[in-house]
Amino acid sequence: MFRTPLFVAATALAASTLFTACETKPATASEAASPTAEALAADSAGTPVTSGTAATAEAEANATPAPDPSSIPAGSIADAATITARPQVPILCYHQIRNWRPKDSKNAKDYIVPEQAFRDQIKMLADSGYHTVLPDQLYAYLTTGAKLPSKPIMLTFDDTDLDQFTVARPTLDKYGFKAVYFIMTVSLGRPNYMSKAQVKQLSDEGNVIGSHTWDHHNVKKYQGQDWVTQIEKPTKTLEEITGKKIKYFAFPFGLWNQQAIPELKKRGFVGAYILAEKRDPIDPLFTIRRIIASGYWSPRTLHNSIVQSF
Ligand SMILES: [Zn+2]
User: Fold this and answer.
1) Model confidence pLDDT, tens digit, residues 105-148
2) 47 is a domain residue
3) Residue 165: CATH number of its domain
4) Which regions are flagged for Low complexity bias (predicted)?
């Protein structure tokens, strides 16, 4: 099941805010669902992906560098209906990548993917022929119809957890995969969270750093100065760390409202990511859907979820 997420790391929000809206059609796949040939092959193969395959995948993914969104003329940008009508690129959202502990709650385990389960999920993606894409590529695809690599997928990591650097990064490197890291800046340098140097390294290595607020407060409740504290200052911090413009935002808990979108645009963002609920028909670029890759999911379940949810 796609459980209603109730867990969030390192935040002290009131319990009433700790929910994420599920979409009406659950983004689920059961183990009993008939698997695709691809998923079966991935599950049964166990064949190591050769460096040659990884290199080819990387070459293909990097073949067409995406333009910076600011370089795309406004007149070339498709209208919202056209953007919404394009096939969605599957986007996965990860949080902690670590083995379960006895005190982890049932709900928390959706957000905590055990190390081997993570490696198995990523291997399945590589074996199934997926190529990771980054937000500028997705932006060019959505706005202008620019070509993407075959079987595109985006991998995103929220909340700054250290294991994203120590566990996920080496796994992605093995397959030439790049990812997006949505950072909440309050955690930088704290125990079990990434340091500024690690965030810079991820950026330098070709991954994308996005903003995920200062301390994970619900965007729907912002007033006045909150926009400075939660959005402006943290984004500036990330720009200082990476030396790059921060263009993309992920809503904490996936919670958004229409009032937030002009506020983000005003502050230079060109896209924002939610979770599995429906996109906004008016501003699909600011409500880009992701599904949480659950810690309970086998590679086959993940594959089925990708196919069914996007
Ligand atoms: Zn988060």
Assistant:
1) 999 999 999 999 999 999 999 999 999 999 999 999 999 999 99
2) no
3) 3.20.20.370
4) 53-65
For ligand 1, an ion, list residues with CB under 5 A.
158-159, 252
Find the 109 Cα to ligand 1 centroid distance in Å.
15
Q: How many structural domains is the chain composed of?
A: 1
Burial of 294 (0-12, 13-18, 19+ CB in 10 A): buried
Question: Residue 216 Cα, ligand 1 centroid: separation in angstroms?
Answer: 6
Domain that holds residue 143: 36-42+76-309
Burial 251-285 (b: 16+ CB within 10 A, else e): bbbbbbeeebbeebeebebbbbbbbbbebbeebbb
Centre of ligand 1 from the C-alpha of residue 226, in Å: 17
